[in-house]
Automatic annotation (TrEMBL):
Xref: Gene3D superfamilies: 3.30.470.10, D-amino Acid Aminotransferase, subunit A, domain 2
One example of a Gene Ontology biological process annotation: carboxylic acid biosynthetic process
Documented EC number(s): 4.1.3.38
Family: Belongs to the class-IV pyridoxal-phosphate-dependent aminotransferase family.
Protein name (record): Aminodeoxychorismate lyase
Alphabetized InterPro entries for the sequence: Aminotrans_IV (IPR001544), Aminotransferase-like (IPR036038), BCAT-like_C (IPR043132), BCAT-like_N (IPR043131), Class-IV_PLP-Dep_Aminotrnsfr (IPR050571)
Length: 280
């Protein structure tokens, strides 16, 4: 089941050609996107996702996204969805066609969540650490690298996932060359030690996660300590839990890292997952 809507709120056939071959999103990956979890017809964190779309647009010198248009398109997708209770809602904006008048291409697409992701939510995942070649300070020093923007240029992230598969794992924890933890290719990393949750700072050049923000807020209200500071990759092996979180995968625990079994975090994961779900 897929539902496609344009920013004027009209539906389009997801199986019919729509994007021009000279669209810069297609030929250069020059654009931005968001993926939002919808449960029982309710989009989670739509506002923060649209805010982040705006931040990404500013980082790429794109025009401000047509917020009302994206809300309209999202509503059209939700109103016409007859698939599973959970949906992944993608909002996409590209720089438009090469040599055109600068009008961005935009659409909203509702998709089923893959059974693989649903299984990983329940069972946890094996991950490997991979060097992302990012050093502290690089994001600020070289803003043209677009570190921390949710751009359409995800080929590197997908290549990292294939490398993980070659190494017998399903996921990746990116690290700086100095061995500090960054994020997953499509997720935020959270380490749990005692009653403290820690995530690396976005200033390292990673995407500020909406799921992480919701979990941290819920955890803080429930008496946990939440910390945003660098984490050494070595410290993950002794953490009580290592989590990869994102809108679609929700809270997923890493049970194996670089082929080494991590301490059993089943109970902690269940507790934090319930805490996250209590926000909805
Ligand atoms: C690189 C990256 N980091 C983190 C995340 C998690 O963000 P969110 O929780 O807002 O989905 C994503 C989401 O896809 C991502 O692509």
């Amino acid at each position: 089941m897929r539902v496609l809507a344009l920013l004027d709120g009209t539906l389009a056939d997801p199986d019919a050609p729509l994007i021009r071959i000279d669209d810069l999103g297609l030929v250069r990956g020059d654009g931005i996107f968001e993926t939002i979890l919808v449960v029982d017809g309710k989009p989670r964190e739509l506002g923060p996702h649209l805010d982040r779309l705006e931040r990404s647009a500013a980082m790429l010198d794109l025009p401000a996204p047509d917020r009302a248009g994206y809300e309209r398109a999202a509503k059209a997708v939700l109103d016409n969805w007859s698939g599973s209770a959970e949906m992944a809602l993608k909002l996409v904006m590209t720089r438009g066609v090469e040599g055109g008048d600068g009008t961005p291409t935009g659409f909203a697409l509702g998709l089923e969540i893959s059974p693989k992701v649903l299984a990983q939510r329940a069972e946890g995942i094996a991950a490997v650490t991979l060097d992302r070649g990012i050093e502290p300070g690089l994001a600020e020093r070289a803003p043209w690298l677009l570190l921390g923007a949710k751009s359409l240029s995800y080929a590197v992230n997908m290549a990292a996932l294939r490398e993980a598969e070659r190494r017998g794992a399903a996921e990746v924890v990116f690290t700086t060359s100095g061995g500090s933890v960054l994020e997953g290719p499509t997720s935020t990393l959270i380490a749990v030690r005692g009653r403290t949750l820690t995530t690396p700072p976005a200033t390292l050049g990673i995407l500020p996660g909406t799921t992480q923000a919701v979990l941290f807020q819920a955890a803080e209200q429930a008496g946990w300590t939440v910390v945003v500071e660098p984490i050494a990759a070595e410290d993950l092996f002794t953490a009580d839990a290592v989590l990869l979180v994102s809108s679609v995968r929700s809270i997923t625990r890493v049970h194996t890292l670089d082929g080494r079994a991590l301490p059993d975090s089943t109970a902690l994961h269940a507790e934090l997952h319930a805490l996250y779900e209590s926000q909805y």
